[in-house]
Amino acid sequence: MDYLSRIEKQLDLAPAEKEQVMRELRSHYEELKEELVASGMDPKQAEEEAARRMGTPDEVAASRGTVPGTSSWKSALLATVPFIAAIPVLPLDIGKSVSHEAQVLRILYLAIYCAIMAGGTIRELRHDRRPVWLATWSAASIVCATAVVRPVLSFLMPGTRVVPNLVSYAITWTIMTCIGLLSSRGAPKWAQVVVVGQMLSLLALAGMSTSWGIVMPAGTGALVGAVYFIPGSVAWVVIALRLLALHRFGNVFLASLFLFVATASQLGGYVYASSLSAITRADLFVPVLVAAVAVILFARAPTSRLKLMALAAGVVVQQFWRLSYVYVDLQLILFWTVQAVESLILVVLVPVLFERWMRGQSDRPEIVA
Amino acid sequence: MSAPTELVKGNAAVLILACLAREPMHGYRIVKELSKESEGYFAMGEGTLYPHLHQLEKDGLIEGYWETTPGGRERKCYRITERGTSELARRREEWRKFQSKVNHVLGLAPEAMGA
Predict the structure, then answer these.
(1) Do B94 and A363 touch (CB under 8 A)?
(2) How far is CA A142 from CA A101, A118, A139, A290, A353, in A?
(3) Residue spans of alpha helices (H) in chain B
């Protein structure tokens, strides 16, 4: 396969946009080759030298990731896989007794799901690539790694609640803290201290509000529940920015998508916590499908503004849907409203502010050698 | 010796605008101009220049158009827009101030009055 064909194969763009980019690259490559041949170089050597000066196909294709554009349908659909594949393990059996076999099957499915998401993520990270679907797969692998803990513990310790909850929280925040610290390698020490501090406060809040039987004043339980997501959110933001926004082939909008998956995954956690026994399939499927549609719209949107709008719309529609079946419960209305605001801040505001900060940094003349 | 890649990447936009402020150019010519003006210091993977051009185009700082050379090859040229000219002026002034202060601190040149 020749040099340009290899670039074209790796370019993750919609066909029309890809055609334009390849047209330009081809023109540059041909002109460079002609000049080298005119200077006396052998045609074969000129091809190699032109390819060397243009950059490897991996680098050229991956550098496109720094500019938000329309991804291919393949990438867009791959990005929805974490949501669609999660449907079989949505908690439809809240309040009902689950057979031993069903529990084992659920745990096995979660383990396989986690392995596939993590495997795909690690592969792309090792190849130093940042395709759009990496944002959803990487977030899903972290969510799944933490989500699999509770069913495993419930299976191993049937009939108990407090110990599995405590252990599950401890393992969850250990995983998140480790990933947060790994992601912030190379960042200033204070950033790492913030990650650890935030995760510790998450553990403290979670322990106090659920497992130790502390009675909350009426109306505040849900608010505390919503607030306690904030410390964990800091870790998610650090991971998203380090993994995706700050990478040479990434961009801040991929970080937005990562955070969208992180916030969308909170649905499952709350369902477990609230024991809504009257929950129906539609109550759980609709937010998942809304998330999948938002991801496709994000991937296919041509501009960064439209991408953010797609995610913001996904957050708002999901939360309205949840509000529609808990509208009689003031605590839950308050909870989901605070959640919606938190999610919008994470998904839209944090990346936008970070991008402005980054642009401000690159404007500073001291960056130039 | 050439500039570190990450530093060039962080300033590619202003370097491209400065080239296009002189006259419209296509991508290959921009790379050559940058290398020539900097005596080889600003070198980047030529294929990785295009995302910067496309971002500047999306931001409205430059505009692209296709043309056909006398030899029959088509190529995409870029020209700076009014918005791009203002942005370049802003960044030039920023750089001039910064350079003046650094030179003064390092004792390299007297600080210009009012800089």
Answers:
(1) yes
(2) 26, 8, 5, 21, 25
(3) 5-22, 27-37, 50-58, 82-106
Arithmetic mean of pLDDT, A75-86: 91
Q: Chain B closest CA to A351's CA: distance in Å?
A: 17
Task: Calculate the alpha carbon distances from A36 to A24, A40, A296, B45, B74 in Å.
Answer: 19, 7, 44, 16, 19
C-alpha span between B81 and B92 (Å, rounded): 16
List, as ranges, residues 14-73 from B with C-beta within 8 Å of A: 26-28, 41, 45-48, 50-51, 54-55, 58, 73
Cα separation, A345 vs A364, in Å, equals 27
Scan for tokens 């690159």, then name that residue. Answer: A362
Per-residue pLDDT of chain B (115 residues; tens, 9 = 90+): 555 555 555 678 888 999 999 999 999 999 888 888 888 777 667 888 888 898 899 889 999 999 998 888 889 999 999 999 999 999 888 888 888 888 888 887 555 444 4
* B74 with A23: Cβ contact below 8 A: yes
Q: What is the mean pLDDT of chain A?
A: 77
CB pairs under 8 A between A and B: 87
Q: Which residues in chain A touch residue B9, judged by CB atoms under 8 angstroms apart?
A: 248
> CA-nearest residue of chain A to B51?
A64
Report the candidate in A172, A109, A114 with the shortest Cα–Cα distance to residue A146. A172
Distance CA A314, CA A289 (A): 10
Select from B7, B10, B73 the Cβ nearest to the Cβ of A27. Answer: B73
Q: Is the ipTM of this complex over 0.90?
A: no
Beta bridge partners of B66: B76
| Residue A66 per-residue DSSP state | G
A277 CB contacts (<8 Å, ≥6 apart)? A94, A95, A96
B91: contact with A, CB 8 A cutoff: yes
Buried b (16+ CB within 10 A) or exposed e, A175-214: ebbebbbebbeebeeebbebbeebbebbbebbeebbbeee
Lowest mean pLDDT among A57-71, A203-217, A241-255, A320-334: A203-217
Q: How many Å from the N-terminal Cα to the C-terminal Cα in chain B? A: 31
Residues of A in contact with B58 (CB under 8 A): 67, 303
pLDDT at A186: 65
Nearest chain A residue (CA) to B95: A365
